[in-house]
Amino acid sequence: MRIWLPLAATCSGTFMLLVYATIVTVALPGMAHDLHAGFGSLQWIVDVYTLALAGLLPGMGSLGDNLGRKRLYLAGLGVFAAATLVCGLAGDVTVLIAGRALQGLAGAAMFSTLLPLIALTYTGRDKGVAFAVWGAVAGAAAGVGNVVGGLLTQFLAWQWIFLAGVPVCVLTLVLSAAVLTDDAREPTRIDHLGIVTFTLAATGLTFGVIRGGEEGWGAPSALAGFVAGAVMLGAFVVVERTGSHPMLPLHLFRSREFNGTLVAAMGYYLAGFGALPVMSLWLQDGVGLTALSAALVLTAQPVAFFATSALAGSALHRLPAHWTLGGGTVVVGAGNLLMLTVDAGSSWGALVPGLVLTGAGAGIVSPVLPAIAMSAAPASRSGVASAAANCARQLGLVLGIAVLGSVFRRFSTGTGGSGLRAAYADGLSAACAVAAAAGLGSGLLALRLLKARRPAVRADDGPLRTRPGLRKGS
User: Fold this and answer.
1) Do residues 382 and 258 both lie within one domain?
2) How far is CA 179 from the centre of its chain?
3) By residue range, what is the domain housing residue 34?
4) What is the CATH number of the domain that holds 11?
5) Residue 473 domain-assigned (yes or no)
6) Cα–Cα distance between 277 and 412 in angstroms, integer?
7) 374 lies in some domain
8) 232 and 320 in one domain?
9) End of a domain among 213, 246, 279?
10) Are residues 421 and 367 in the same domain?
11) d(CA 74, CA 72)
12) 245: Cβ–Cβ under 8 A, 6 or more apart, which residues?
């Protein structure tokens, strides 16, 4: 069993950094009350973490090459533990948001090293098993976070969703230091301009969406965010095109397979998990459930995820990528369609069928995404492709929380009593409609882009390899 201790260390770190993307979901009403936080601040408590995680993830890969991946992973774990403690002790919403941002920065350092560390440790069939287990843990963490958050919030206080994580981080740090493989440092030039422009582009877009939901899409602050995001995105493209050591080589986007993988990664995470915060608000403030009861309702999603991954895991790796990534994302979108039945008279049960279907769809996509992403690029760029897929997944969650939260806010116009319940139902239905469109649209596009890719097969030296004859970019 000792052979699997490195996998346990990496999966524990993965679970911690991804569970904190959603663990705050059911605690938002309590945070709003204790910290006197408005809806916009609540969105930032959720979004700033994922934004920092996604925005810094590509550049952290270069930093790992310079420092060594094990060293960067351990440093990230240490900073993550400290930031989590800051969040738990925060008595002000500004401090909490700052702590969440630091959590995201540390999470990016951890996330960028995880797949390379697994690849360094395992070979042959063991590598395939390790990647499958890691993918399942990564996908399930988002759903499990709601349950853990509900339990801690209900029986202790929202602060404990952070305080309880500190000893887990410390234990993971000790285990990782003892069992992970030391890797050689490969001094390279870090694409500082690429990191800065990409992060500012993502931040500007997210800021614009959140401010647009608060003040209207034509508000000066919202427009400024969109313009700044567009300008920085253009600058990022220029930097990557002209730089000698780009963190994301633009030629990868000539591959239909690579593009299809990114579309599916972003789409299924946006549609599957972006609406969870507003579902929690509807369940607690609209229907009147406790934090724990709301968390138990949302548990339907991770249960479906685990069941799908467990029952179909081995078969998924033998299916063509367009059916697993594209088809699974379509299933996630269809799950949101089932939740359009929510109205003023609905109870919590109205969400369950949709949660089950979105969980099943995510359970199809997540276990195979890492290996397909790594095989979507030349071997020398497999790490970059994997980081890009993880980045796309997290950006999907960032945009999902921002866009769906803004839609929910715009359609929730009630003032109290039954009016509030009806308004929350209207807001949730509108958010689910947008999520459904995003899931179905991105899934169908991924199906088209990935259809030329032949079924993946197991290889002796890696988890998956495309069949001979696949033409990149076809």
Assistant:
1) yes
2) 27
3) 2-190+247-466
4) 1.20.1250.20
5) no
6) 14
7) yes
8) no
9) 246
10) yes
11) 5
12) 62, 188, 189, 190, 191
- Are 77 and 135 in the same domain? yes
Amino acid at 105: L
Could you say which DSSP state residue 36 is in?
T
The letter for the amino acid at 26 is V
Q: Is residue 440 part of a domain?
A: yes
Determine the number of helices (DSSP H) and then strands (DSSP E) in the chain: 20, 2
Q: Is residue 474 part of a domain?
A: no
Q: Is the separation of the CB atoms in 469 and 454 below 8 Å?
A: yes
- Contact predicate 389/373, CB 8 Å: yes
What are the structure tokens assigned to 174, written together? 């000790």
Tokens of 145: 């976070």
| Residue 284 DSSP symbol | I
| Residue 76 CA neighbour count, 13 Å, CB half | 31
Residues 209 and 162 in one domain: no
* Joined tokens for residue 95: 């401090």
State the maximum Cα–Cα separation within the chain, in Å, rounded to a whole number.
Answer: 63
DSSP bridge pairs for 465? 457
What residues does 85 pair with on adjacent strands?
A: none
Render 119-175 in DSSP notation, one character per residue.
HHH--HHHHHHHHHHHHHHHHHHHHHHHHHHHHHHHHT-TTHHHHTHHHHHHHHHHH
Per-residue pLDDT of the chain (474 residues), as tens digits, is 677 888 888 888 888 888 887 788 778 888 888 888 777 777 778 778 877 877 777 777 667 766 777 888 899 999 999 999 999 898 888 899 999 989 988 988 888 787 778 877 877 777 777 777 776 777 667 667 777 777 888 788 888 989 988 999 999 999 888 888 777 666 667 777 887 888 788 778 777 877 776 677 778 888 888 898 899 889 988 988 887 777 777 777 777 888 888 888 888 889 988 888 888 888 888 788 887 888 888 888 888 887 887 777 666 667 777 778 888 899 999 999 998 888 877 788 888 899 999 988 988 887 777 777 777 666 656 666 777 777 788 788 878 877 888 788 877 765 454 568 788 888 888 899 999 999 999 899 888 888 865 444 444 344 444 433 333 333
Q: Are residues 201 and 118 in the same domain?
A: no
For 3, which DSSP code? Answer: G
Q: What total of structural domains would you count in the chain?
A: 2
**Which of 13, 70, 109, 21 minimizes the C-alpha distance to 387?**
109
Q: What is the pTM of this model?
A: 0.73
> Among 246, 265, 293, which residue terminates a domain?
246
The secondary structure element, H or E, covering residue 418 is helix 417-450
The full DSSP string for 177-195 is HHHSPP---------HHHH
The 3-state DSSP class for residue 169 equals helix
